[in-house]
Amino acid sequence: MVVSGRSGADDATADEAAHARTSLDEAAAAPHGSPPRAAPRAQASAPGRPPGIAADVTARCLPAVVNISTRRVSRSGAAPRTGNPFFDLLRPFLGGGGPRESRSLGSGVIVDVAGVVLTNHHVVSDATEIRVTLSDGREYAAVSVGSDPESDVAVLRLRPDDDRALDLQALPYGNSTELRQGDSVLAIGNPFGVGQTVTMGIVSATGRAAMGIADYEDFIQTDAAINPGNSGGALINLRGELVGINT
Fold first, then answer.
1. What is the pLDDT of residue 213?
2. Which of the ends of the chain has fewer CB neighbours closer than 10 A, N or C?
3. Does residue 128 sit in the same domain as residue 68?
4. Looking at the predicted structure, is the pLDDT value of residue 104 above 70?
5. Of 117, 159, 123, which Cα lies nearest the Cα of 141?
6. Looking at the structure, do residues 144 and 85 belong to the same domain, yes or no?
7. Residue tagged active-site, from 69, 122, 144, 147
8. Using the 8-state DSSP alphabet, how is residue 88 labeled?
């Protein structure tokens, strides 16, 4: 249906004319010298804040995004000299020395209330210990139950210390193939380990490949800020559905 702007102007003119005729009729019917009728008072609109779609979606989704910290213990450095010329020649290639510990941070997304978390493979690869912290501060140990380095995706399962229910909130899956350039998206994660952070942007492109990040690449490109520590976090649409894992 097409509504012409001119038709609206004609309707307004007709209404004004009818109102003028009514006013004249009322004036003629009113006794001479009667005080003029007061104009009706405008109804004040109820106070309220403007709608915040992104804020509402964020509030619903934050409990399903987690912080991940990992600990890795590895042996590094050259092997000590033995005095044997043959072994000393191979010393740079043998490795050795004492164990070295490293720690790293990342993000993850709860996709099942039974305690299943999606993240990036590189966030948890070779981890000796994995700890997951929820948005409300609860912390659990986690184990990797599946990991695919080619697509850089890993699946974790939380390991609670007791048999009590985890009481988790999971993000529903969206359909990333329906994303279009220009669609608004939110990125939620734990950049630089400062805590949960939300950034907003648009889908800049879909199907990005040959970027040298993973062996299998079919990336969603977005201008939402994604920093170190965001890896493994959620990319969500404005329906609050998971459409990607940030890398």
1. 67
2. N
3. yes
4. yes
5. 159
6. yes
7. 122
8. H
In a domain, 131, yes or no: yes
Q: Per-residue confidence at 160, pLDDT binned at 50, 70, 90? A: confident
Give the whole-number percent of the chain exceeding pLDDT 90: 52
Q: Are 171 and 64 in contact (CB under 8 A)?
A: yes
Active site residue 25: no
CATH number at residue 98: 2.40.10.10
155 and 196 inside one domain: no
Same domain, 235 and 198: yes
Q: Does 231 qualify as catalytic in the annotation?
A: yes
Centroid of chain to Cα 102:
27
pLDDT at position 172 is 96
Total number of domains constituting the chain: 2
The region, left, alpha or beta by phi > 0 then psi within -120 to 50, assigned to residue 195 is: left
196, 189 Cβ separation under 8 angstroms: yes
Are both 69 and 126 inside the same structural domain? yes
pTM, whole model, 2 decimals?
A: 0.69
How far CA 68 is from CA of 103, 140, 225, in Å, comes to: 11, 10, 19
Name the token pair of 156. Answer: 């974790």
Tell whether 183 and 149 lie within a shared domain. Answer: no
- How many Å apart are CA 156 and CA 161, to the nearest integer? 16
User: What does the alpha-carbon distance between residue 96 and residue 99 come to, in Å, rounded to a whole number?
Assistant: 8
